[in-house]
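Protocol step 6 of 9: fold each sequence in the batch and record its structure tokens directly after the sequence line. For illustration, a two-sequence batch is reproduced in full.

Sequence one:
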Amino acid sequence: MISLKSLNVLLADDNQNMRAIASAVLHSADIRNVYEAAEGATAFDLLRRHPIDLAIVDFNMFPLDGVEFTRLVRTSPDSPNPFLPIIMMTGHSERSRVYEARDAGVTEFIVKPITAKAVLDRLNAVIMRPRPFIRSRDYVGPCRRRRDAPDYAGPFRRSSELGRSNAA
């Protein structure tokens, strides 16, 4: 196992008790530097002032929530690190929320109530198995494809191509 002592983590959640729990989990993993914020704008300011390696943010915060924070990190001209791994945590695991977070550029997702295992699994994923970063007209963030399968080698790449034929 790698040492996490030198990792700088930004933890943003509007619930102080949740920050205390998440911070205790991070400290138990030997992470010494945890910067805390109660909402996204403060978190973004901390990100600009400190060398943050990883952010863990809550979905629901006011006035700037975790999705808006992620979009700022990914696309703002004054973002110090658009490639920052961002783990989203939320008590709302509906598919639409997961997709909204994913499409904003979130790297990983944790459902509350969090467990130490879930947090450590997500830390391991962003550190040991980072996904390639994508920058397109409509999206900035880690590759959203999670399959380890090899690229499709058949005659049709997209479902929209099913009506086309390879015959000349």
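Sequence two, same batch, same settings:
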Amino acid sequence: MIEFIKGYVEHITPEYIVIDHHGLGYQIHTPNPFIYKKSNQDEITIYTYQHVREDVLALYGFQTREEKALFMKLLNVTGIGPKGALAILASGNPSHVIEAIEKEDDAFLVKFPGVGKKTARQIILDLKGKLGDIAALYAPDLFTHEEIEKERTNNHALNEAVEALKVLGYGEREINKVLPSLKQESLSTDMYVKKALQKLLK
């Protein structure tokens, strides 16, 4: 996994930018490519997510780790793919998206391309109350400090548990089947692993 790339913007298109990193050009899909200025003088850091499918290998890039984290959260929602998640982030106002999810404002969410009533409700169902870590930057008034700290702890423990399951040989498809129920609980890493194994072995 490529966490970030530092380099110079060599080319900009409506769909992606090309970053020159020591003579190697990385094609990176971004929510709004035109926010980047083509310049050989200013080195930028872009936080990346590598999307792998049978027929696709693509890099997605973001200005901050929090924006990248929101993109990854959206990808976990049934019915939202990379293109749909980018369209949501292209508004440039993650705080509005987070606020809409927390306040169950599906009327706001259906304004994005590819998001119908059903998908908007799914976004709210899957993500409401689980964005405290990201909201700490974009919408701090929506969560108390205690809620943000709890979310940060839970995310870290769950992420560690997922990595442990991968080491044990479980694939992403199997892990994704049990993730929704695990996200409903606040557990330590070892308890997440035990709970996941119980569900996987049923």
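Proceed to step 7 once all outputs are recorded. Observation for sequence two: The chain has three domains: 4-62, 65-143, 144-202.
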